[in-house]
TrEMBL record:
SMART domains: AAA (SM00382)
InterPro entries: AAA+_ATPase, ABC_transporter-like_ATP-bd, ABC_transporter-like_CS, ABC_transpr_MalK/UgpC-like, Mo/tungstate-bd_C_term_dom, P-loop_NTPase, Transp-assoc_OB_typ2
EC number: 3.6.3.31
Keyword Glycosyltransferase listed: no
Descriptive protein name: Spermidine/putrescine import ATP-binding protein PotA
Main location: membrane
Gene Ontology cellular component terms for the protein in this record: ATP-binding cassette (ABC) transporter complex, substrate-binding subunit-containing
Any one GO molecular-function label of the UniProt entry: ABC-type transporter activity
Superkingdom of this protein's organism: Bacteria
Alphabetically ordered keywords of this record: ATP-binding, Hydrolase, Nucleotide-binding, Transport
Coiled-coil ranges (or none): none
Family the entry assigns: Belongs to the ABC transporter superfamily.
Gene that this sequence comes from: potA_1
Species, as recorded: Martelella mediterranea DSM 17316
Length: 373
């Protein structure tokens, strides 16, 4: 049994030269994951998520950096250490499940045991470990079926059983749900989360879907153009986005520009003057000085339409309703206030009409001065 220290990735870099002059890949990734962490790489298509995962797996030779899983160093560029893929015992599932159609479910799942280079497994071990993995994904009665007789969701579970059959200390999942239809995807999301918690296996999950990332993860690294732009808990990513990219990519938000009217240190209360002259009380995620340009993020659900029934909302802005949308569990309003636009989510029973003049309210705790302006 390895000493379980978790996963450490340091200064990981892999840049693909490009003829168009735009070099893709990952510029630098640094993180440590305690054992059992569900970690997600979240970002738009082409930002470098798969490259990072392939470097950790050993499918790609990084330009520099270091990768360690528990007490085993898989890659260390400075020390010239490189452990090949088939000696790392890392479980992997990809978007295209890569289930072999000419094999039975049992043969698919037992494959990693049969080809393992770092140790050999007896016939009995292969049988018991394969059946254990199949029972983990509730497919033990499907062992003798041909893989082609399975639904998409079942094939994905076979891919998952194959990934965990050698009881790896690290599981890598690259957009494993994106080929499933919406209802099944939701189901599998819950299933995968339950399974990961049950097995306690450190997992790195790749997705461009922010809802998946928020729902499943202990920690999220948001990646933009090959760089990690914030690494935090789902709550912090959502409520304390450090930069406009994170605020905008994860959920939707209102971004207001202004100038700092009262200086404060990082984490303190700042005052920001908007273009219309109004002063907003905010929470600042960086040290700010008077006169600094500042961008404030306020989530649509953090804004209320003030009707006198609640307490003091903190900040108040006069606005006019432009559009209403009803989406079942909430109503979405678009409003304007001078030259500013606001998106506001309310209880679906709130009935406002285009042209109505209202007062919007939001707390200084929910008005975040972003760190990157
Ligand atoms: N083998 C490769 N050769 C050249 N460029 C590549 C290669 N693989 C990926 N890239 C480029 O690197 C960038 C990141 O790709 P990738 O890691 O697959 O992004 P993601 O998984 O976030 O969608 C993209 O711009 C992509 O075109
Ligand atoms: Mg990818």
């Amino acid at each position: 049994m390895n000493n379980q220290t978790g996963v450490t990735v340091e200064g990981l870099r892999k840049i693909y030269p490009s003829s168009a002059g735009v070099a893709g890949g990952i510029h630098e990734a640094d993180f440590h994951l305690p054992p059992g962490t569900f970690f997600t790489l979240l970002g738009p298509s082409g930002c470098g998520k798969t490259t990072t995962l392939r470097c950790i797996a050993g499918l790609e030779h990084p330009d520099s950096g270091r990768v360690q899983v528990d007490d085993r160093v898989f890659f260390d560029q400075r020390k010239g250490i490189w452990v090949p893929l088939n000696r790392r015992n890392i479980g992997m599932v990809f978007q295209s499940y890569a289930i072999w159609p000419h094999m039975s479910v049992f043969e698919n799942v037992s494959f990693p045991l049969r080809v393992a280079k770092d140790r050999s497994y007896s016939r009995e071990e292969i049988s018991s470990m394969t059946m254990k993995a199949l029972s983990t994904v509730a497919l033990e009665s499907f062992a003798e079926r041909s893989a082609t007789q399975l639904s998409g969701g079942q094939q994905q579970r076979v891919a998952l059983a194959r990934a965990i059959v050698r009881e790896p200390s690290l599981l890598l999942l690259d957009e494993p749900l994106s080929n499933l239809d919406a209802a099944l995807r939701d189901n599998m999301r819950t299933e995968l989360k339950r399974l990961q918690r049950q097995l306690g296996i450190t997992t790195i999950y790749v997705t461009h879907d922010q809802a998946e990332a928020l729902d499943m993860s202990d920690k999220i690294a948001v990646i933009n153009q090959g760089r990690v732009v914030q690494l935090d808990t789902p709550e912090a990513i959502y409520f304390r986005p450090e930069n406009a990219f994170v605020a905008d990519f994860v959920g939707t938000t209102n971004l207001l520009s202004g100038k700092v009217a009262k200086a404060c240190p990082k984490g303190g209360s700042a005052k920001v003057r908007l273009a219309n002259g109004q002063i907003i009380d905010c929470t600042s995620l960086r040290d700010v000085a008077e006169g600094d340009a500042a961008t404030i993020s306020v989530r649509p659900e953090s804004i209320v339409v003030v009707d006198g029934s609640g307490g003091d909302p903190g900040n108040r802005i006069n606005a006019q309703v432009k559009l209403r949308g009803f989406v079942g569990n909430l109503a979405r309003y678009e409003l304007t206030a001078d030259d500013m636009k606001f998106s506001v989510n309310t209880n679906p029973k709130v009935q406002l009409r285009p042209g109505d003049n209202v007062v919007l309210g939001f707390s200084p705790d929910d008005a975040i001065v972003l760190a990157d302006n």
